[in-house]
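EI: anyone free to look at a 305-residue chain?
SC: sure, send it
EI:
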Amino acid sequence: METVRLEGIEVALAHPDELALEWTGRQDLIDQLLAAWLVVEPRDLPLHPRLVGKPGVGKTTLAYAAAKRMGRDVYLFQATLDTRPEDLLITPVVAGEGRIRYVASSVVTAMIKGGVAILDEGNRMSEKSWASLAPLLDARRTIESIVAGVKVKAHPDFCFVTTMNDDASTFELPEYVHSRLTPTILVDFPDEDEELEILANNLPFAPEEVLRWVTRFLTRAHAADEAYTVRDGINVARYALKRLALARERADGLAAGGAWGAAEDGPSQRDVRLAEAVRAVLGDEALRYAAGEETPKGPFRPRAT
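SC: here you go
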């Protein structure tokens, strides 16, 4: 693990995140984010945008893809209700022989290395934790770790972005935080063609009929202002494909053993498995958007919320 010395204190750094994420969607969203980070002359500073949208619309993928287009290392930090200020900054841990070792968060590592910090689901974090980042998100571009007793100034190339879910399970941020997180970039549901392309990129092994079935389901749900996302569609398709593959293996095994068995490859069985997957992943209420498809039979325990 790489270490640096900050005001005489040795601090271990986090590793950058290498993820197989590729943005498929509106190019203007990438352009908006890149413009926010652009430094137009030496006295200028990058802005600290926030990406706002429903869970699963691709906010984190968008941020990661934009950072990679700039050729920067990316450092992800997952915010939660329990995130403490020291979690965002520098954390003391007990090393061998009772020694204290200081470990920089992914945010502070990005500051030091000149990378891009993505604070995921930032509005799940309390105001107290946001307050520890306030000097980083204005012209000072610094953080101060009381635990380690050091102040860190951000590298000139450091960029920051936070994603925020547009739902009821989040904190309302105070004005002094809002004013530092600008611009706001709204990430909405992709259109039908984009959803089909995203599904195909994430499930290159899936038959086109399955991808189009899921796309039609999502289109109907969006028209009714439901919050089902491409992520939900990917999960539906994955589970349906696994059910179909398992049935096919079982049928092949029966045939090899001399017993009669038929693989579930026909349109009727495919539609039934997809509808069952909708119910298993999203609950009974989602089946109304599989209109015109066969509805699965039998009891079901809905997804816990």
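EI: The chain has ten helices and eleven strands.
SC: 👍
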